[in-house]
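Hi, here's the filled form for the chain we discussed.

Project: internal
Contact: R.S.
Residues: 363
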Amino acid sequence: MRQLRRLGAVLAGLALCATLSACGYGSQRVGTTGRVVPTGAPLSASEVRVGYFPNLTHATALVGVREGMIQKELGGTKLSTATFNAGPTVIEALNADSVDLAWVGPSPAVNGYTKLGGKGLRIVAGAASGGVKLVVDPKRIRTPADVRGKRIASPQLGNTQDVALLHWIAEQGWKVDPLSGRGDVSVVRTDTRMTPNAYKSGSIDGAWVPEPTASLLVAQGARVLVEEADLWPDRRFVTTHLIVSQRFLDRHPDVVEAVVEGAAAANAWIAAEPEQARRSVNEALRELTGKPLPAEIIESAWPSLTFTDDPLAATLDAQAARATAAGLLDRPVLRGIYDLGPLNRVREAAGRPPVDDAGLGTP
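And the returned structure, exactly as it came back:
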């Protein structure tokens, strides 16, 4: 039984599919790098390339880039950006040296770390917690027990929400084959861009999805059956964090620390100015996708999200254990996946306490 078990071959196919942009994934280069242009002497690298999703759960990146907070900390080092629609594509880009740092969910980070034996990436900061919900058709599903026998979407085989859904199903005492999605519940892997249409057509009865997809479904008449935050201690769990190529971290630690400092500034501004932050995020989405979110959708989605520098390392370990229990992974060895030195130096300089790596930091 190998490290990625049966999922390995499937993820390889997904990665190829993403590379070819033939399965609704892939990446898009972005022309804008925010409102601040590089000034002064560069740091140890003349350019740093960062990736993120045009998604509410990546608001740290959206704000940090658009408002110029990251570029400000980089000084004369140029910030270049790329957007992605799937975690495996981000890991592929990091391994191919197409990006240096990226915001991504926990499952792709764990898969990427274990696939290369702990030599490919490090998690250097948190970004978002929460913002994930099971939303259902209230005509077909009124209680958790009603989910049995229904068709529930998740964004992608083995992604963070897919693991959470499989874990929740198992806790109900039901059985589902993790690869096919067949069983007491039909788990239908559906690109979140397609999920609202799938719900509208009646081809799914609900979905375990991040924001804003959950609120888009609610606007179509769905209701929230489970908010994932309610299933975690203190309602906190990692949804998005910042990863870096190990090669880049070794060669340019000053650049990494500058990006981390800019991201921390973005999180602080989001907390201090939530209304302005929502507008900035929506304008960034308009610039990146050509279409902003309706005001009522972003207002509905925003309260369930928390933007934080803390990567919530203990919850990453728990999510990896859940993926193992679901049959998607052998239990990964995650010791060394975090390098929180840059983040804790930034926090110390700001008079803030350090964050904990739950024993999963670099030796």
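Let me know if anything looks off before we file it.
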